[in-house]
Amino acid sequence: MLCAAGIMTLPLAQSATAQNLIRDAELEHSLTELARPILNAAGLSPSRVKIIVLSDRSLNAFIIDTRHIFIHSGLITRMEDPSMLQAVIAHEAAHIANGHISRRLANMRSSRTAAGFGLLLSAFVAAAGSPEAASGIAAGSVGTSQRVLFAHTRGEESSADQSGARFMANAGVNPEAMVRVLDLLHGQEVLSVGRQDPYARTHPLSSERRRQVRGYAAAYGGNSDITPTAQYWFDRARAKLSAFTGNSRETLRRLRRTRGNDVTETVILQRAIAFHRQANTRKALENVNALINARPNDPYYHELKGQILLESREATRAVQSYRRAAQILPDQPLILAGYGRALLAADTQSSLREAKRVLERSYSHDPRQPRMLRDLAVVYSKTGNPGMASLVTAERYALAGNTGNAEIHARRAADQLPRGSQGWNRAQDMLRSAN
Fold first, then answer.
1. Which superkingdom heads the taxonomic lineage of this protein's source (predicted)?
2. What angle do CA 351, 293, 323 make, to 5 degrees?
3. I need a labelling partner for 56 at 20 to 30 A (CA). Which of 15, 135, 352, 380 fits?
């Protein structure tokens, strides 16, 4: 886990080249707000297509199925305004809407080559509770097989560019931003493979493509203004990512130069994160309290305060902050997971009972959180339910692609849980999928 403002990273692959998945309630909400108009214009459901961030400084975005768009954190922090990030989303949404991935997915699922990849956190591409949850969709490796899977043809790129520009225009976003994204990436194809950003290997970049995109932008054109909502959530997403992925000393050095009206909400947010990473809890809390005073009903700032307090070993105070965040957003699984973690850290009989209830609720909304599963296993163990502790431990191992340990713990759960109970049936499902 990266100890920064509730952002956690999870291993995607069992290799030295594994990438990390960033889970954070505020970040996911920000990207959902930015993606919503684009996905609607593409005829895709914003509730079904999720934007997933990988902790990687390189510039890339890709799809591996029809329900997830993956974007590297480095690409997000390099975008100059929300319309550029929306251009990336529009292009990848076009690959989904135009059916470019479906044939390759069908071929991959019928082939044994998927076994050669690192496992992408399987719960993100499988339905909750599916017996296939331990298998996942192939990703994570940077070898030739992955590039074959991810790489689009020049024809597909042209189709996605044209459709993406149309989606942007229909959503009221200026398609010219797509030109600026390609200008940023210009020059990658002339570099050796080892020096290229992954985007150049998965999305062919050429002068002809850039010329065509300029034509699409001119055809669909317009001078649409960036909406205040898009700008706000883009600023928060980029500020949070840069504050926890960048050098905290450099962040604070840069922010010290801000004065007067330049001290914006996102500057205060970055200060809170940077001071927290420097273990300066007093100043971190000063800044997060300023954010809460300005926006008392913002759940993500209460969550951030809870994270700071919890990681500063002030569990009781952290519980209060997380509780407030959960009151504002009672069904947000990541906030509930943090709340449960704080209650577990408080470690009293009453807090353990409450932690069990909260973590079970988090599980019901999103069972695909390895750290939440670990905390829930501890709670079950501390409250005298070793069978359920083994079951959720098995599920956690399955999400990490460790099918051997998953099977071991699933057998323990099946032996300990009442035959025919919901937990016993879940253990049986896992055992069947392992065979």
1. Bacteria
2. 15
3. 135
Question: CA-to-CA distance for 422 and 166, rounded, in angstroms?
Answer: 48
13 contacts 139 by C-beta, under 8 angstroms: yes
Taking the C-alpha atoms of residue 203 and residue 201, their distance in angstroms, rounded to an integer, is 6
Helix-, strand-, coil-residue percentages of the chain, each rounded to 5: 65, 5, 30
Q: What span, in angstroms and rounded, lies between the C-alpha atoms of 205 and 34?
A: 25
Closest among 358, 291, 75, 293 to 202, alpha carbons compared? 75
Is 95 in the same domain as 135? Answer: yes
Residues 393, 387: Cα–Cα separation, whole Å: 10
CA nearest to 21, candidates 49, 47, 41, 2:
2
The structure tokens listed for 37 are 């108009």
The CA distance from 367 to 347, in Å, is 23
Domain count, the chain: 2
Residue 11's pLDDT band (boundaries 50, 70, 90)?
Answer: very low
Q: Both 283 and 367 in a single domain?
A: yes
Rounded Cα distance between 430 and 387, Å, is 14
Q: At what angle do helices 228-245 and 25-41 cross, to 10 degrees?
A: 140
Q: HSE (CB half, 13 Å, CA atoms) of 187?
A: 3
Which is nearest to 106 in space by CA: 44, 157, 64? 64
pLDDT digits (tens, 9 = 90+) for 62-95: 888 888 999 999 999 999 999 999 999 999 999 9
